[in-house]
Amino acid sequence: MKAEAMNKPAAATKLHLTKKLKGTSHNNLAGYIFISPWLIGFLLLTAWPIIQSFYLSFTEYSLLEAPTWTGTDNYANIFTNDNDFKTSLKVTFIFVLFSVPLKLFFSLMVAMMLNKNVKGMNLYRTAIYFPSLIGGSIAVAALWRNMFNLNGYFNHVLSWFGIQGVGWITNPHTSLGTLILLNTWQFGSTMVIFLAGLKQIPGELYESASVDGASKLRKFFHITLPMLSPVMFFNLVLGIIGSFQMFTSAFIVTQGGPINSTYMYALFLYEKAFKHYQMGYASALAWILLVIVALMTAINFLVSRYWVFYETDGGKQK
Amino acid sequence: MNKALKNHKVTSHLLLIVFSLLMLYPVIWWVGASLKTTAEMSLPSIWPSTPMWENYTKGWQFSPEFTFGRFFGNTLLMEFWNVLGAVLTSALVAYGFARLNFKFRGALFSILLLTMMLPGQVTIVPQYILYNKLQLMDSYIPLVLPHFFGGGAFFIFLLVQFIRGIPRELDEAAKIDGASVYGIFYRIVLPLIKPALVTVAIFTFIWSWDDFFAQMLYLNSVGKFTVGLALRMYVDQFEIQWGRLLAMSLLSVMPSVVLFFFAQKQFVEGIATTGLKG
Predict the structure, then answer these.
(1) Which of A175, A235, B121, B202 has minimal CB crowding within 10 Å?
(2) Total-model pTM
(3) B26, B111, B150 member nearest A37 (Cβ)
(4) A273 and B12: CB-CB below 8 Å?
(5) Domains (ranges, CATH) in chain A?
(6) How far is it, in rounded angstroms, from Cα A30 to Cα B96?
(7) What is the pLDDT of residues A93-114, one digit of tens each?
(8) By CA distance, what is B252's nearest residue in A?
(9) Alpha-carbon dihedral A111, A123, B255, A244, rounded to 10 degrees
């Protein structure tokens, strides 16, 4: 697990040192040759841009002229004068709050359903993975807009039950809901990671529980969930980070509307940068997002101590 | 006993079929709608009275100048370089992190993991400025280049885990036979990580196909458009011809679907055996 690896830099160094003592020599040149593609890319496209973005967040910059230093003006404006900032932050938090748990729950259920040995599993997997394959393409926007139109198919199905639907995407009260639904429908990669986790739970655990007469529900809560908690944690952390950056569906399905009801933070930032060319302002927004995401992740790691269960080192497979 | 097992299997199948249909329902509707006239679009029937095959033929002819053949060609060419770059460099980098000892390895690997959590919004503005300064706008370089830098932290991490699962004795044996670290990589490790590399290739293909944002940011001229960008123009340019739009969008997702179907065993099991284990 990535999360686990991150918790253990100290352990890694220790291992490193003992190896050194044993006489395994360093091979600095070869090591750096092998990782050079990543290292160059990291310096050029990540590290340097991070520094530059931090600097730009204290400037006004339109791409045409050199950046002019404005101190903390951008931040002051964002926090005091900018209603779009407040709106987009609110919309994004609501989106994260609903879509992350929904997607986790749904993916886990599906993964458990697919973790069986039945014939034709390939076909089922492809069918169930299909919505995730079409991802953020325009195809999805066209599909979603048509499904949830006033005259769309969804309302037609509702009419069988005598329910009068609305234009789900054009109604500001329901538009965000359609995006949450869309995001949940595309649960593929989260589900695949759960599936990988489920396959690693030793079958003996279930067998001995069966011998003891444990019910299915009991097995789920006392074996599956604890054994799966590191994977759950991984999906939760990446899910929250990803949802805070949700852009495509808001951009192509609703363009942030109606009445800003789906005006996601990433969309707001995009418009500032690439529509109005306020690069300094957009950089400040990006840094605020970074701080929010870092805080959320830190909280996640702190809370994880109370619910994420790691196998003891003795039980670990070599 | 046997009967109970059989019953259990039948319920499993039933559950899976119902669920698959539920997931695919919008897609089935989509296939039908791609053959409808705009007037028919809002009618409840799934299938049109007379299929409008011309949604496909006329949709394919994007403009007098370009057909969708051009856009598919553009996208596939970009994909070729993306997949090549990701597969080639992710294997190199992962081998370095998994098997070689060098100064700051632990720290650099932690940084690599941290970059997975970095919101792309922080780097996108300076990157855009950089490509703008280097006059690389309206070219495929900003889209392809990042894949040659290790293919992304997620893939490197996946491969490192995979390589860690290969017994070190194999390396040692090759070393005794006089192989250098490069020889070990090429002759021992590379052949063994093929399944994981297939996973990297498929993921890269599907994700770049869908990476509409970067394409929109860096490509301007219609002749260079990817399928995704052409579809978006379709929405803007004409008074939306839903039939044609849906027909062409359906074609646009086919490459990913076909690829997934044929490689999905390796795809899912590649991740499972790579083991997101510690």
Answers:
(1) B202
(2) 0.83
(3) B150
(4) no
(5) 62-311 (1.10.3720.10)
(6) 8
(7) 999 999 999 999 989 988 888 8
(8) A139
(9) -10
